Amino acid sequence: MRPVALCFSGLDPSGGAGLQADIEAIGQSGAHAAIACTAVTIQSSQQVFGFEACAASLVKAQATAVLDDLPVSVIKSGMLGTTDNIAMLTSLFTDQIIDNNTPFVLDPVLVANSGGSLGDEETLVSAFKKLLPYATLVTPNTHELRALSREQDLHAGAQKLCAQGAHAVLVKTSHDFDSGDIEQYLYIQGEMVHKSTLPRLDGEFHGSGCSLASFIAGRLAMGDALIDAVQAADSWIIQTLRAADIPHPDDAQAQLIPNRFVRF
């Protein structure tokens, strides 16, 4: 059986983000995705209109059923949506229902790339800080990094999250710039060890953060070292962009093309 990545993520009815993106990206990495659904969202490919979170007890029951049944090699969380769900996931680590040696990729979703709110930011940030010490890798965009660290400088923010317990932080910078290539910085234990530059396509797209974090999680499940998993994700994204015939967003056929590899 392929290595298993257990993902905590929400349902996107447009199919571009959330658990669908997790399944596709982890499959591309070579691993198998198991899902604990955390929320049902109301969204199109362009905008989040609302969501209803699953009860923490329901999410926990989904996760423990998988953990009792399958050899889970890595944990990945995306949209958790409520402080109850964040606290529940934290308790799975503190109570050692999840082995603390299991790699954990934390994508601290606060706001969708398309601009929709996914919960009260202040309370989510407070809850996430208790989850940080269990994270092998945190993958914030610049808004999330500044919210979590209370630092405007990206490098200081990444170092602060490491000081608060995260083993590593991958900073995604596209939200700071409207043009030019996208830069990403990997910090391990507060030291920047890797920088990558990725091409940017015109337009607004969603779900790319889910895919990036999930592909890295999949590669960790496959046995890669962290920096190798991040580099593999960079290569996968670039290859996907080059292989895809992605039309301009104004084209009526645009939504038929997988678009999650553009906006990180």
Question: Keywords for this structure?
Answer:
264 residues, alpha/beta, six-stranded mixed beta sheet, three-stranded antiparallel beta sheet, 8 helices, globular
Shape: globular
Question: Helix and strand succession?
Answer: EHEEHEHEHEHHEEEHH
The main sheet orders its strands as 3-2-1-4-5-6
**Spans with pLDDT under 50 lasting ≥5 residues?**
112-117, 245-264
Helix content: 25-40%
Query: Based on DSSP secondary structure assignment, what is the total number of beta strands?
Result: 9
Number of helices: 8
Structure classification? alpha/beta
Largest sheet: 6 strands, mixed
Strand content: 15-25%
On the 0 to 100 scale, the average pLDDT is 85
How much is the radius of gyration in Å?
Answer: 17 Å
From the N-terminal CA to the C-terminal CA, the straight-line distance is 31 Å
Describe the structure.
- There is one protein chain.
- By secondary structure, the chain is α/β, with parallel strands linked by helices.
- Helices cover 38% and strands 22% of the residues.
- It contains eight helices and nine strands.
- The strands form two sheets. A six-stranded mixed β-sheet has the order 3-2-1-4-5-6. Strands 7-8-9 form a three-stranded antiparallel β-sheet, sandwiched between helices.
- Strand 5, helix 4 (121-131) and strand 6 (137-138) form a beta-alpha-beta unit.
- Helix 1 (18-29) runs parallel beside helix 7.
- The longest helix is centred in the last third of the chain and has 18 residues, at 226-243.
- The two termini are 31 Å apart.
- The model is unreliable at 112-117 and 245-264 (pLDDT under 50).
